[in-house]
Specification:
The chain has 282 residues and is α/β, with parallel strands linked by helices. The chain folds into three domains: 118 residues, 3-Layer(aba) Sandwich (D-Maltodextrin-Binding Protein, domain 2), CATH 3.40.190; 84 residues, 3-Layer(aba) Sandwich (D-Maltodextrin-Binding Protein, domain 2), CATH 3.40.190; 67 residues, Alpha-Beta Plaits, CATH 3.30.70.120. Keywords: Amino-acid biosynthesis, ATP-binding, Cytoplasm, Glycosyltransferase, Histidine biosynthesis, Magnesium, Metal-binding, Nucleotide-binding, Transferase.
Length: 282
């Protein structure tokens, strides 16, 4: 049994490769080879552009892959989303020249430019625009004002649009990298088991990245106060110190809470606090 995995080339590749490596699937070979070797037997890997991945999965050319949610919807690909990785979050937005008046644009036929034809058509029809669509092949933001009245493009911060004197008039979609599957692969019991195992490990790595392990000592009379401060996943682990009256306490804590929590723990009587990264939470 061979599981056919397809990964986006370009900027997403490094993040996906790192995630897979932490799951025990290490990729070898330069990205430009398009066919890196996998350390896990039975997994065949190929690199493609993100926008090509959803339709090829739907056509049963591959079993599992990674792609932006925007391209899944743009191509109406019949794939199963397994996990939102949260990588490369972007907004797909409609933007016009900063001096444009929306009512004036809606009063006439406009030229709309985008790489996203279906998303653009759906948005403009919903908003009541009369338009002619023109597909772009990159650098969409340079079309207005001479060659387009409105564009639909992806943006992380909006800085590029602002630099080109464009203003956002609506959000079409919020997107990020998704782990997706060909539904027919999930119907195969052998492939499904491997996919589910990989999904479990990915979730463990992503959960681990958002937490750290805090370990500390505390006097017996301060144990209750310290435990009550800890936002552990379930209950903190508590064990009595060797030949001492105090306790050792450990808990997995959201990384974002550590800066505020540690001073409160010290004030409550905790000492010898250790912070350790977590590789996986399964």
């Amino acid at each position: 049994m061979t599981l056919r995995l397809v990964i986006p080339k370009g900027r997403i590749y490094d993040k996906v490769s790192e995630l897979l490596g932490e799951c025990g699937v290490r990729l070898a070979g330069a990205e430009r080879s398009y066919r890196p070797a996998s350390s896990m037997p039975g997994i065949e890997v190929k690199l493609l552009k993100s926008q090509n991945i959803p339709p090829l999965l739907a056509l049963n050319q591959h079993d599992i892959g990674f792609a932006g949610y925007d391209w899944v919807l743009e191509q109406n690909a019949e794939v199963t989303e397994l996990l939102d990785l949260g990588f490369d979050p972007v907004r797909i937005v409609a933007a016009v020249p900063e001096t444009s008046d929306i009512d004036e644009l809606k009063s006439r036929r406009i030229i709309a430019v985008s790489e996203y034809e279906q998303l653009t058509r759906q948005f403009l029809q919903r908003e009541g625009f009369n338009f002619t669509f023109v597909r772009s092949y990159g650098a969409t933001e340079v079309f207005p004002p001479e060659d387009a009245d409105l564009i639909v493009d992806n943006t992380a911060t909006g800085a590029t649009l602002l630099a080109n004197r464009l203003k956002i008039i609506g959000t079409v979609l919020e997107s990020s990298t998704r782990f997706i599957a060909n539904p027919r692969a999930l119907d195969n019991p052998q492939k499904r088991q491997v996919i589910e195992n990989l999904l479990l490990l990915m979730k463990g790595v992503i959960n681990g990245r958002s937490r750290v392990l805090l370990e500390m000592n505390c006097p017996e009379d301060r144990l209750e106060a310290i435990v009550n401060l800890l936002p552990a996943m379930r209950s903190p682990t508590v064990s009595r110190l060797y030949n001492e009256s105090g306790f050792a306490v450990k808990a997995a804590i959201p990384t974002k809470d550590v800066a505020m929590l540690v001073p409160r723990l010290i004030s409550a009587g905790a000492s010898d606090i250790l912070e350790t990264p977590i590789r996986k939470v399964v």
